[in-house]
Amino acid sequence: MQLNTNSMKKILLLVVAALFAVSAFAQDYEEDEYKDKFDFGVDIFHDVWMGKPAGMDPGALNLGFSIFGMYEQHIWDSKNRFSLGMGGALTTHQLTSNMFIEDVTTAVIVFDTIPEGLEYSTSKLVVTYLDFPIEIRYKSKNDFRFALGAKVGFRFDSHTKYSGQRLDGSTVAKEIVKHKNVANIESIRFGPTMRIGYKWFNLSMYYSVTKMFLQNRGPALRHFSVGLTLNPY
Description:
The protein has one domain: Porin, CATH 2.40.160. The chain is 9% helix and 52% strand. It has one helix spanning 5-25, and strands at 37-50, 63-75, 82-96, 99-100, 112-113, 120-139, 144-165, 174-180, 188-198, 201-207, 222-230. The strands form 2 sheets. It has an 8-stranded antiparallel barrel with strand order 1-2-3-6-7-9-10-11. A two-stranded antiparallel sheet has the order 4-5. A hairpin with a 4-residue loop joins strand 6 and strand 7. It starts with a helix and ends with a strand.
């Protein structure tokens, strides 16, 4: 399923703006820790990539970033230790490697190896999603926290960037090449999530069940994300 990119971006920006406006001005941040409320947070994570094309050597650190807002409603027990969280997030993933995509518009996306001997500082694919997470949360009396859930995301943006010597080898001059809207990236992604930690600091994990590219239209890339969540819920 391919979505109208411009229309989707306008809708998603409005959703994100609304979520964070409500979060910023909500009156639920009172001292009653068990009150239903809006919360917000940020994720900083590293992506481990699987299904890589032959010869691809990912960078040692593929940092991603997410900012989210969620509504928390307490459920089930009389001690209010369990809650349901639902909301939205804007999440960016990147894949840095020794390869580049020469043509982002082809029917089948192919990663080509950067010619040996060329000096370069950056070669990466960046994809941004608008995610809608849902999770069951548990908070103990001493502020130990655990959350298990899932999220579905909609592709928001994609681009490649190469910075280094000219790829055609014609000169040693440096060039920066950027291409937007990489073809054949799945419009929708989903997968399970987990967080565990203490107070504001949580270890977070996400596994992408869906592959990044459409079937037979690109490499079978998918990723596992692990990182740190700062979340004052």
